[in-house]
Amino acid sequence: MTSKPFGTVPAGAKQQPTPFELHVEDEKLQDLKTLLRLSPVAKETYENLQDDGSHGKFGVSRKWIVDAKQYWEHEFDWRKEEDHINSFPAFKSQITDDDGKEFDVHFTALFSQDPSAIPIVFFHGWPGSFLEFLPIMSLLREKYTPKTLPYHIIVPSLPGFTLSSDPPLDKDWKVADTSRIMHKLLLSLGFGSTGYLVQGGDIGSLVSRVIAATYDECKGMHLNFMLMPGIMDNASPDDELTEQEEKGVKRLEDFFDQGHAYARMHGTKPSTIGLVLSSSPIAQLAWIGEKFLAWSDPRTTTSLHTIISDITLYWLTGCYPTSIYTYREMKELLYVDKPIGYSYFPFELAPVPRAWAEKSGKLAFFKSHDKGGHFAALERPEVLLEDVEAFVKVAWK
User: Fold this and answer.
1) Residue 192 and residue 203: Cα distance in Å, rounded?
2) Which of 3, 132, 311, 368 sits a CA distance of 20 to 30 A from 163?
3) Of the residues 202, 297, 310, 387, which is catalytic?
4) Which of 151, 262, 325, 327 is catalytic?
């Protein structure tokens, strides 16, 4: 139990989670400052000078790294970010897997006191974290009170990410394993009797799809990222695509041609890249910062503060090498025989057309937007929230 507004766990919970507040030791923060000061930035090259102020066709620019390093080292205040994080109710639950292994699962939540509140779980992706959904949670706690909130909002940290337990060292961990742990978390909160809905982007969309296809308690899913192995097999010459969707397919093709190298590295040599990027905060700044820059719509771009907050959390929790396990797993497309919602953002790194999405499950809600990218929950939180609330009205019976 926590005294924070929206912090009262539903009465039907099977086990009581432990309230949690994040506090990073001063020594860790000082070590980060020292590493930032001592970490060199690569010398100028033809490639790293090609940029539009942040990144170019060869990747993140040297100028952006220099400016971001300056901000991170001298202006960014982790304690202020920590205070904001701790303004939301957060918990840890000990979840026992089928083999008896125990996981500490972190989640941030807004619990309603309305007995008919609908549980909605938001799953982050890579290189994101639960921080992605704090803007949406801010909107909800401004719009509703604990008594009027029509939903229970649960935002977990996936296993291997930031504040949850890592995958085991003696097992090749899969998306299905993460999905199972997340489902068990929701059952522990008492949502087995009511059912729940899932929402996700990026890796969170894969977790959402596996859960929706596997567990009866999940009543439907809303996605803002529809790409999954096999989804492109749904393409047909007879598909009617809008002009915007045709441009999106070209963007998808460009992503696989020019923007997919990081994923191949994650999938084929996770040990090597995990060791490399854990050696320097500037290495993570370049690797992760590039994704935020290239995958966000320039019109709704993610702020430098938000990018640094995310990377700082990754660095302080040491989670990068344990967060990339999903990239070496290829699966067949899972058909979801339940209501699906899909929000289409044109600057998504892989904008899947509606016609393809319709063949992957029972599409009950679709909304196409004129701007927004891969990090929709950060770039356009008001719009994504509106879509999720609209989806709930058609999906929850």
Assistant:
1) 24
2) 3
3) 202
4) 327
